[in-house]
């Protein structure tokens, strides 16, 4: 059984707690106030907190901490030469959702490193131990490494495949280029980069997400091989998959 943690759990639990307190307050006023208008006023004052609590509760388990939507990772894996990979670095592995999803596509004996800041303020349980545990449940070993995507403590040119699944958009805007340059540095000369991204661009950027991320990848020293859009089953703009190889004409920065 996998556990991938609760996203944004602190803010959502705070909203649930505020809604619970508001509900208790309304109940107390309803029992003690002889005035109908006093009761109406109490409900009106508590309503915004109750609405926010309801929304937080609805989102708390989305996605559920044990569920895995494999289709988007499968779409990435189908474009990568994983069958011949001896080493893979997954940037932003978190509690192991992307690692578990990529597991069926990895060859036996492939050395896997999962890089993440492992910040449990965003995801409950986000830690190297949980990433390692989930990987073992999926049938392989991972070496979790604590580090920043813009400064990964990984030997240059050491990784046959580098993946970044839904993580680049979470970095500060100024770190997008730096992080991709670092992924270029750790990628083997004949290696491959696979990016799975949400349709998100920094605030103030006028270009569409596909154009923006393709430009950032190319500027970091990669040659883009192909791009694919993956329809999202819950609706919204499609995910973006970019496959790129180190550009031999552009040295590491």
TrEMBL record:
<dbReference type="GO" id="GO:0032259">
    <property type="term" value="P:methylation"/>
</dbReference>
<feature type="domain" description="Methyltransferase">
    <location>
        <begin position="89"/>
        <end position="191"/>
    </location>
</feature>
<keyword id="KW-0489">Methyltransferase</keyword>
<protein>
    <submittedName>
        <fullName>Class I SAM-dependent methyltransferase</fullName>
        <ecNumber>2.1.1.-</ecNumber>
    </submittedName>
</protein>
<dbReference type="InterPro" id="IPR029063">
    <property type="entry name" value="SAM-dependent_MTases_sf"/>
</dbReference>
<dbReference type="Pfam" id="PF13649">
    <property type="entry name" value="Methyltransf_25"/>
</dbReference>
<keyword id="KW-0949">S-adenosyl-L-methionine</keyword>
<dbReference type="InterPro" id="IPR041698">
    <property type="entry name" value="Methyltransf_25"/>
</dbReference>
<dbReference type="GO" id="GO:0008168">
    <property type="term" value="F:methyltransferase activity"/>
</dbReference>
<keyword id="KW-0808">Transferase</keyword>
């Amino acid at each position: 059984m996998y556990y991938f943690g609760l996203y944004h759990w602190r803010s959502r639990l705070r909203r649930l707690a505020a809604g619970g307190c508001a509900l208790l307050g309304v109940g107390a006023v309803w029992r003690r106030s002889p005035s109908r208008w006093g009761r109406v006023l109490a409900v009106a004052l508590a309503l915004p907190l109750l609405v926010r609590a309801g929304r937080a509760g609805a989102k708390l388990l989305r996605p559920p901490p044990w569920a895995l939507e494999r289709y988007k990772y499968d779409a990435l894996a189908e474009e990568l030469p994983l069958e011949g990979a001896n080493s893979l670095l997954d940037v932003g592995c978190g509690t192991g959702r992307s690692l578990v999803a990529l597991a069926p596509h990895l060859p036996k004996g492939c050395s896997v490193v999962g890089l993440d800041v492992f910040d449990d303020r965003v995801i409950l349980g986000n830690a190297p131990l949980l990433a390692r545990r989930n990987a073992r449940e999926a049938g392989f070993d991972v070496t979790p490494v604590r580090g920043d995507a813009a400064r990964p403590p990984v030997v240059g040119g050491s990784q046959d495949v580098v993946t970044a699944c839904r993580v680049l958009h979470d970095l500060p805007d100024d770190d997008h280029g730096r992080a991709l340059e670092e992924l270029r540095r750790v990628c083997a000369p004949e290696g491959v980069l696979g990016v799975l991204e949400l349709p998100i661009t920094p605030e103030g950027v006028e270009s569409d997400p596909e154009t923006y991320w393709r430009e950032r990848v190319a500027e970091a020293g990669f040659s883009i091989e192909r791009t694919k859009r993956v329809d999202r089953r819950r609706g919204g703009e499609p995910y973006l998959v970019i496959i790129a190889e180190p550009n031999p004409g552009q040295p590491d920065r």
